[in-house]
Amino acid sequence: MEKLQNTTIFITGANRGIGKSLVKAALAKGAGKVYAASRDINNLPDFKDNRVIPIELDITNTDLVAHAAEIASDTKVLINNAGVLSPGTILEGDMEGKQKDMEVNYFATINMMRAFVPILEKNIPARIVNVASIAAYSPLPFIAGYAASKAALFSATQAVRIELAKKGITVHAVNPGAIDTDMNKGSEMEAMGNPDLTAKSILDEVEKGILDIIPDDMGKGMYDTWRKEPSKLAAVFHDMYHG
Ligand SMILES: NC(=O)c1ccc[n+]([C@@H]2O[C@H](COP(=O)([O-])OP(=O)(O)OC[C@H]3O[C@@H](n4cnc5c(N)ncnc54)[C@H](OP(=O)(O)O)[C@@H]3O)[C@@H](O)[C@H]2O)c1
User: Fold this and answer.
1) pTM above 0.90, yes or no
2) In the beta sheet, which residues pair with residue 8?
3) What does the alpha-carbon distance between residue 166 and residue 160 come to, in Å, rounded to a whole number?
4) Residues with CB under 6 A from ligand 1
5) Which domain range does residue 191 map to?
6) 123 near 215, Cβ under 8 Å?
7) In this structure, is residue 156 part of a structural domain?
8) What is the pLDDT of residues 129-155, one digit of tens each?
């Protein structure tokens, strides 16, 4: 497996949270160039490193996605990190939030893959890294629309992995547990993962060629529970929901 040193990496949602940490981790790995994509480049932190190339990109804007693929035509590793979470159960909460989760986390992310695969094919060996969620395995009722969108993304990730298997593009799925970012602001969940450690762990496992990555301890615990017996993780979430 190719290391990330001297590689060109494209990261969406790079201005905060796990995306920002992924930029720092990519630089620490010795990446040659990091395209840091953000809906508003003014929100990007100063990474104080001239290997970072800011790119303005809302992944739901198909023109901007096409333009980004044109500018970043030397990308070898595409990290689809951008995502949104709208709270709400299946029966309650607004439908717009559920549509938005699906729009960003699923449709826009598969559109990113469609736009970038033609350039990744020219830069093989290449990789796509899709950040889904542990909720892709078993849904939490109070974020059920988000969980469905991540299950859809996880499914698409596995499908495209097979589709691209003979083209020199490796496709990784990342399914973290709860990480301490804005997405979990106000959450009372304990022992959330640290975004910097999570990002480092993601890139370490990408370098090792691990296809299904659970980068944090909470995620690993949940995944082990699910793997032994899927209903056991559902029982944990039942208890979290009903108290
Ligand atoms: N935190 C967790 O517990 C957790 C667990 C599992 C998976 N994840 C996943 O990890 C990824 C990163 O999440 P995070 O925790 O770092 O969340 P975050 O702090 O809320 O950051 C989300 C990032 O996605 C960007 N984004 C949202 N909509 C976008 C769009 N339409 N186009 C481009 N960028 C967009 C945001 O940009 P703006 O600043 O412009 O809004 C921001 O940079 C997400 O896919 C999330 O679902 C997170």
Assistant:
1) yes
2) 33
3) 11
4) 12-13, 15-19, 39-40, 43, 57-60, 81-84, 104, 131, 133, 176, 178-179, 181-184
5) 8-242
6) no
7) yes
8) 999 999 999 999 999 999 999 999 999
